[in-house]
Design goal:
CATH topology: Deoxyribonuclease I, Chain A
Strand content: 15-25%
CATH architecture: 4-Layer Sandwich
Mean pLDDT: 97
Order of helices and strands: EHHEHEEEHEEHEHEHHEEE
Distance between the termini: 10 Å
Largest sheet: 6 strands, mixed
Number of helices: 8
CATH superfamily: Endonuclease/exonuclease/phosphatase
Shape: globular
């Protein structure tokens, strides 16, 4: 089973940049999207349906903002829209599909880069999600939490750790939370499971300076975190930086249930 996660920073814009063609080449079974900025009715789904996908969406109440979706070639046995937390559900941040042998959630954590108010909301989400993922693991022992967490975990995950230590996304409190989430979840950072010490692997590059992606001056803020029950099923995980439909790039996880 091949799963992708991808913050597309607007799925309609990504579609115009060849998203369907990329998915045709990649042949994923399940694709988790974040920051769709749209609903199902806003996208010409024909090219994706032609690839065999069905889609499930959870959009923000605010038009053109946030939102998550999952495209799948496998029929889920259960669909969970939202998290039950009214503030985060208002912003369309969680959707889960259960396929029986594995549950997959697409999540989009709040960003704190626009100021103190949003950083406070981000901290509230972090506190909520820590317990929420435990509750989901209790119900779905084999689960993958795919998405944009808007946090770099370690200095190896960011191009300039010293220069960014006071910036949202790499604040000490955020790093400590990410470490605690993984260790106490308990969860596996699937990319680091296969590449524990590999530097210069990023999933997001600032659009403020067009050359940063060319120079690979990025941040690894997107993750595919799996429950420990899935450890025997992890086959491979990688980042796909050559996909350029967004300021993020996708990640890929392959699970083997044979």
């Amino acid at each position: 089973m091949k799963i992708l996660t991808y913050n597309v920073n607007g799925i309609r814009a990504a579609a115009k940049k060849g998203l369907a063609e990329f998915l045709a080449q990649n042949q994923a079974d399940v694709v988790c999207f974040q920051e769709t900025k749209a609903g199902q009715k806003d996208l010409d789904f024909g090219p994706f349906a032609d690839l065999g996908f069905e889609s499930y969406w959870f959009s923000a109440e605010k038009k053109g903002y946030s939102g998550v979706a999952i495209f799948t070639k496998r029929k889920p046995i259960e669909v969970v829209i939202g998290s039950g937390h009214s503030s985060f559900d208002f912003e369309g941040r969680h959707i889960l599909l259960d396929f029986g042998d594995v549950a997959v959630q697409s999540l989009y954590a709040p960003s704190g880069t626009s100021g103190d108010v949003r950083q406070t909301i981000k901290y509230e989400w972090m506190e909520f999600f820590f317990q929420y993922q435990k509750d989901l693991q209790a119900k779905y022992p084999k689960i993958v939490f795919c998405g944009d967490y808007n946090i770099c975990n370690h200095p190896i995950d960011i191009h300039n750790p010293k220069g960014n230590i006071k910036n949202s996304g790499f604040l000490p409190e955020e790093q400590a939370w990410m470490t605690r989430l993984i260790s106490e979840g308990p969860l596996t950072d699937t990319f680091r499971h296969f590449y524990p010490n590999a530097p210069h692997h990023y999933t997001w590059w600032s659009q403020r300076f067009p050359s940063v992606r060319e120079k690979n001056l990025g941040w690894r803020i997107d993750y595919m975190l799996s429950s420990h029950a899935l450890l025997p099923n992890l086959k491979s995980a990688k980042i796909l930086p050559d996909a350029k439909h967004s300021d993020h790039c996708p990640m890929e996880l392959i699970l083997d249930f044979s």
